[in-house]
Amino acid sequence: MVNEGFLSQRKRLDTLFYLTAAFALLGPSFGIPVTSGFTLTFFRLAFFVLLAGFIFRFVNTKSLEATYMYPIRWYIAFLCFWIVYAVLTLTWVIDMGKGIRYVVFLTNMIALALSFPYFIRNESYYQKITKVLFGVYTAIILFAVFESVTLIHLPTSRAADENVSDGVSAAVTSVFTNQNDLATCITLALPFIAAAMIMLPLSRKAKTALYGVFILSGYVLFATGSRVNELIVLPLIAVALLILFWKSLDRSRFNLKSIRRNGFFLLLAVVLIQVMLATMLTPEGQRVVGDKLGSTSASLSDLHNAVSEELVGEEGSGIAGQSGESITVRVNLLKHGFDFLVKSHFMGVGAGNIERWMHPSSDEYVSGNVNKENIHNWWAEILVNFGVVTFALYLSLYVWLLWRLWKLISLKRSPHLSPYLRFGAVASLAAMTGYFFGGMAMSTAIHFTPMWISYGLALAVLVLGEHQNKQVEPKSISGSK
């Protein structure tokens, strides 16, 4: 009876985990406004109940039941160190409120990421969570398509508050605050969709559904007008997937018939995306996308000028370049951020305090060439907030994770890995490779749940894959004798 009771508790926790993951991806769009500055989101509610259930189970069992997470022990150790160091930085921050808020976000997001390898205990759980996330992602994309046609925005979208000449913003954001966040979410998800269509033995109905979402994702991605994700991240992911497919699939899969078929469907997807952009986007939306993509060369010129300080550094100097404000402002934000890092003796300005140092009321503020406070780069956000040591550890473990996933996908190194885990390793590796640049598109990633979910999925597939390899190797050795 006791075992049955614990089993029932575990199943309820599993259900809560799936709900938490689903609501995390939906973000702040689903919740109950409590005050003008706080919304009790369904994610926060589900996460709190899940945490309470986890603590209750731990009190009853006196065990974390987490020994199978041993392969990622160094990642857990670093993430715990990161939280401790973030708390320590509160002793020198200049804005305690922002610092505490950031530490809470960081702790919650790290717990979210680690919940994936904890609750995904075998391949069956990994299949379930990827299906749940795909369902939620599909809903996000479908609403984005609807939004692009009707210009009806969710209250959490920045587009709902933008003042434009026509009265309604043409920005496509779906459940996110801005279009760059939506675009980054898409580039994190596309490798999973593409890899599933190529690598998994799916039914024709399942492949058709994936192909449809793939096309809609491409349409929404270009409708956002996110230059970083469209012109840098997407090509990088495409090249990465080609290399990873060649590394992870049997060479017999690369026959002329297969290449022709996949090439045809890829070309068809490109044509359909172009047709949708030409017929479904509003005139204002087409103008915005055309202006952004058409200003690529101007953006490169602005980047060169900003880096060479032709548009930077003078009091009252302009911030608008040939392509607008975005490029020069971002470069100036980075320059100020690195200056703040030096002034903090490379220990970081403290959790969440970049915005406070960038604020006009700060003694360190350099006016005239920035009109934002957030540094708009995830890598720089870690570096400037938490210093060189934390950033170096984060980046080293990130690269090490990519290397270990690379070893998992290899047919030579992991010949007995199951098709689904090999698919998961390929998709995670491609997504996280693209995020090297995708992380530079958003204003902040501290509460950008798709990134933390992607990190958690990568850790989960690493745990399962390495355990599966260890279970097979002894049998292979004994069999050979």
From TrEMBL:
It comes from the Bacteria. Its main location: membrane. It is found in: Membrane. Signal peptide: none annotated. Pfam families: Wzy_C. It is a multi-pass membrane protein. The chain crosses the membrane at residues 41-60, 72-94, 100-120, 132-154, 182-202, 209-225, 231-249, 261-281, 378-400, 420-438, 444-465. GO terms for molecular function: ligase activity. One of its GO terms (cellular component) is membrane. Keywords: Ligase, Membrane, Transmembrane, Transmembrane helix. Residues 213-395 form the O-antigen ligase-related domain. This is O-antigen ligase-like membrane protein.
